[in-house]
C-alpha cells in the first residue's frame, strides 16, 4: 500500500466515532498533528514595552469577596519605581490613588524583577475603570470592568482556560477567548511550562515560590489561612478555589476551611456554586489517570451534600465532560469503586487544553460510563449563567486557526432546578 493510501486509510479510521461503554468520543483530529512549538522569545507577543522602567506583565485579580476591589500586579526591571496606582471610573472625573507593595525572589541562580501588587478598593459594581501604573517613570494606562452586584438571577459569562504555556497554539487560544463573551477568566492552573528553559526547578526547595510572589489572591477575605485555597463571589456565582497540591486530609487546614466555607454559601444570594481545582477527579485519559482519586475520596461527599453545580479542572491536556456521577461511598478499602449516575451530583469538566508544548493527552479505551464527551484538542470553555436555574456551557475548539463550538449543553442548577440534564449519547 502506497504512502498516500496509508494516510487516507488512517484518516478514515481516525474519523470514525468511537462508541464504547460511556458517552461520545469526538471524531475530530487536528490537521496539525505535530507537537506544539513555543513562540520565540523575540516574538511580538513578548515585546517589552518601551520606556525606562516601563511596567510589564500587568495582570489583575479580584481583590475582595464580592468584586469591589481589584489587585493590580505588574513588574518593573530597572528599579522598583512607584507602587502607586491611579484610577478613576468612566463616569467620574475624580482620581483615586492606592499604594501597594513590591516583592522580589530568588530561584536558584535567578533573581526576579520588582513585582508590584496594589489593591484598589471601593469600586462600584458594573463600572468601567481606568488605571495607571509606572507613575514617575513610564506610565501605562489600562482599563477593567467590575462585575455586577452579587445576585441570584444576575446573568454573567465566565471563560475557562488551563495549562496554557506559550506556544503558537496557546496564542490562538487566548485570541479566541478575547473574542468570546467571557467577562472573567477562571484559570485552572499550570501556566509557564518553563521546563526547557534555564533556571527551572534547579534545586529549589520552597514550593510555589514564583506563584506566591507573582500572583496574589484575596484568600483572607474568605477566612482562608493560605493563598492557594479561598473563595470569592462574582455576580450569580460563589466560586471556591481548591489546591490539589496542598494537604487536603480531614485533619488539614484546607479541609477544615472547606468544611466551614460550604455552609456559608447562600444560594438565595449566589445561586450557582462553582469549584476550581487543577487535578481532575474523573478522567478517562492515560495522562494523570486517577491522580485526583485521594482528594476525591476526602471531598466528594461534601460536594454532593452542598449541591455544588460544576467543577472545572485542568492538568490533563485535553477536554472532557462527565455525566452527573458520584462515587462517594468508596473509601479505598471497601471495593465499591464504580461511579454511579446521581442527579444530586455535579458535572466535572476538564479544560487542560490551553495549548502548551507538552502536547495532547491520549485516551483510555473503552470510554468509561462516567465520561459524557471527550476530545484531545486545544481550546477554551465558556460558562454562561443565564439566571438561577439555567446556564449554558460551550467548549470551543481551536480548529485550523478558527474557533469552532465543538461541544455545548444546558446545565440545570442543583439547588434551584435539580432536574435531569444528563446528556447520554449527546455532546
TrEMBL record:
The Purple acid phosphatase C-terminal domain is annotated at 345-403
Q: Which organism is it from?
A: Lupinus angustifolius (Narrow-leaved blue lupine)
Cytoplasm: present as a keyword of the record?
Answer: no
| Keyword tags | Glycoprotein, Hydrolase, Iron, Metal-binding, Signal, Zinc
The stretch of residues making up the signal peptide is 1-22
Report the residue ranges that make up the Calcineurin-like phosphoesterase domain in this protein: 199-319
Q: Could you tell me what this protein is called?
A: Purple acid phosphatase
Name the Gene Ontology molecular function terms of this record: acid phosphatase activity; metal ion binding
* Keyword field contains Glycoprotein: yes
Domain named Purple acid phosphatase N-terminal: residues: 55-141
Which family does the similarity line name?
Answer: Belongs to the metallophosphoesterase superfamily. Purple acid phosphatase family.
Source taxonomy lineage?
Eukaryota, Viridiplantae, Streptophyta, Embryophyta, Tracheophyta
